[in-house]
Write a structure and sequence with these properties.
Chain B: This is Branched-subunit amino acid transport protein. The structure holds two protein chains of two kinds. By secondary structure, chain A is an all-alpha fold. Chain A has helices spanning about 5-40, 45-55, 60-70, 75-85, 85-100, 105-110, 115-130, 135-160, 175-185, 190-205, 215-240. The chains are: A mainly alpha, B mainly alpha.
Chain lengths: ~240, ~110
């Protein structure tokens, strides 16, 4: 390995970390809240932290500890985890074209770390700047999210009690702003705009649905709308 | 209940779903229509995450002036749309959100 490729790898890794920083701010309060909730639900410090180390999926961890606290049977817990995480299969499929040629030793760990936040950051980067050396960028984003999640879980576990007002601090805005800034420039093509509008409407209508089904339904509605609009535009072009 | 068993199952399911397509690598080529469909996953998913946060940050629809998420997220989207600079858009939106929440409307 030449020193030059070594430094460019480090540069890519650091860019991945840098582009993920706003997401870290947004995820921090959830890490703390998760830690406190896990203790309140009867998990030991070790199992609470262990869940963040091994599962590393915010929404499923929240639902998981509440089900464990309620003494839910294991098959129900696992089925719920499966449904809550279904959207990640869409991310896996969307990123495959960029990651096709990477070794399994890369693809397994990067898949383990594939969160909503890292998906948004990494997909944006690959689409706009190409995926050359992208494993290092993805790794940087992943390690930042992972380290951040573990750190704030430990903080929550050691506090062991809920902090009133933490959820209302509004730090999650950082995540919303980043998602908005990433998505807006994509909406200059009409089918993509249609996909976004359809997904937004379905997400609003489905807010009360359990298991993150609102997100899954919204994603499917958006993709379908985008495809139909694209088809329609193509047909009009051919007719003209 | 054995908590470690519960967590192991959750870990297995989560990583299997996340690896579901990635793990196939070169052995999986999508048909053309599916490739086109996947282009709409990012705008669809990100909008599905952002729109409820902007319009109903606390769960119920809030279009009042007290909802700082709405102007903040609109500014993030507008600046990114105009400039194409993600970081600039985020920083400007933080300022707007912060002023709106803690500056303009005390109490």
């Amino acid at each position: 390995m030449s020193p030059q490729t070594c430094s460019s790898r480090r540069a890519l890794l650091l860019e991945g970390v840098r582009d993920t920083v706003p997401m870290l701010v947004g995820a921090a309060p959830f890490g703390v809240i998760f830690g406190t909730l896990a203790i309140a639900a009867g998990l030991s410090s070790a199992t609470a932290i262990g869940m963040s180390v091994l599962v590393f999926a915010g929404s499923s961890q929240f639902i998981g500890v509440s089900l464990i606290g309620a003494g839910t049977a294991l098959p129900v817990l696992w089925l719920t985890t499966f449904v809550v995480n279904l959207r990640h299969a869409l991310y896996s499929a969307t990123l495959l074209p960029f990651a096709r040629d990477w070794s399994l030793a890369w693809r397994w760990p990067l898949a383990f770390w594939l969160t909503d936040e890292t998906f948004a950051v990494v997909e944006h980067r690959f689409r706009t700047k190409g995926a050359a050396g992208g494993q290092w960028y993805w790794l940087g984003s992943s390690l930042a999210m992972y380290g951040n999640w573990l750190l704030w879980t430990v903080v929550g576990v050691s506090l062991g009690q809920s902090l009133p007002g933490l959820a209302n601090l509004g730090l999650d805005f950082a995540m919303g702003a980043t998602f908005a800034a990433i998505v807006a420039p994509q909406l200059k093509h009409r089918p993509a705009l249609g996909a976004a509008v359809a997904a937004g409407v379905v997400a609003m209508l489905g807010r009360g649905l359990p298991y993150k089904l609102d997100l899954m339904l919204a994603a499917l509605a958006g993709v379908l709308s985008g495809l139909l609009l694209e088809q329609w535009a193509r047909r009009k072009e051919q007719a003209a | 209940m054995n908590h470690w068993l519960a967590i192991s199952g959750m870990m297995l399911l989560t990583v299997l779903i996340r690896a579901s397509f990635l793990v196939f690598g070169q052995r999986l080529a999508f048909p053309e229509w599916l490739n086109r469909a996947l282009h709409y996953v990012p705008p669809a998913v990100l909008s599905a995450l952002v729109v409820p946060m902007a319009l109903a940050p606390a769960g119920t629809v809030d279009l009042s002036l007290r909802n700082a998420y709405l102007p903040g997220i609109l500014v993030a989207a507008l600046v990114a749309w105009k400039s194409g600079k993600t970081l600039l858009a985020i920083v400007v939106s933080f300022v707007v959100y912060g002023l709106w929440r803690w500056g303009l409307l005390p109490g």
